[in-house]
User: What shape does this take?
Amino acid sequence: MSSGLRKLVFKPKQCSMGARGSNLTFAIHEAGRRLLAQHDCDDECVSVVKITKDAGVSIGTFYSRFRSKDVFIHALTYTTFRGATESADQALSEDHLGDASAEDVVRAIARTVVRQMGEPKTAGVLRAALKLAPHVSDILRPVRDYRALVTDRARSLLGGRKKAKPSSREIEAAIQMLFGTVVDAVVEQPGPLRAGSDGMADALGDIVVSYLGIASERAWSPKKDESERQDDQKAEGEKETVPNDEEAPALSDGYVPIIDPDLRKTTGAIRLVRRPSLRKTSGKSPRSARQRSSPHQSLRRRRSPLKGRKRKFTNV
Assistant: This one.
């Protein structure tokens, strides 16, 4: 077979194998993001076995692409924040915010950072990267690149204005406060301000606008954020259920509730029955009762009629 015909025959197969390999890698990445959004990276639910099972691939397929779980989380951090960086580059471009006011620019920056980093999958990857940072080198580099892009966009959008022109130092400090608060909300979940919520975006927008000296009215209030949190709890079904009297009888009736730690609610009750004592003391001390029930004592009582009798010896 000639070389030209060989290329023509085998080229579609090679392309399909490459597309299949990239699809498997994407499936593994998505499975890791889903599990990290709900569990800690050291939890058993985020093991290699669980990741491959959720992705629908074999363990050999995983290790053919990643040497270890830490290498996988490193690659996952890179792909996740590379996508966030590209998205922020488009959202904070001159085409979108070139004609906007300084206040609108600040609030757009705060809203973009809060929503991107507070998204559950991105937040889970960030928590895992922060936990592995002490012994995995450069795992936070994609996060730093994302922050550097946001800082550059803030300088270009706010630095060239005639009125209320903040200095480059002030812009860097404002971005530091913004990222520090978002990271704290991602790690210490849930906090007073929920990561990724509109209430956090409005509150941080108010803080940055006030810090940079841009006159504005406050867009966030504690009452508004509290009502938003209550709506989220109702939607997610986080409201605790109170069991009725039939499911959980009172403890005074001799019942003990059965609590499911996974569901965090009472699933039933069990009744405690006290076993009756088989020992009757008849008002005497426990020691005398034990002596009376001793087998040696009963043997003495059986032999007691023989006491005092003289043995008769007969001469043979």
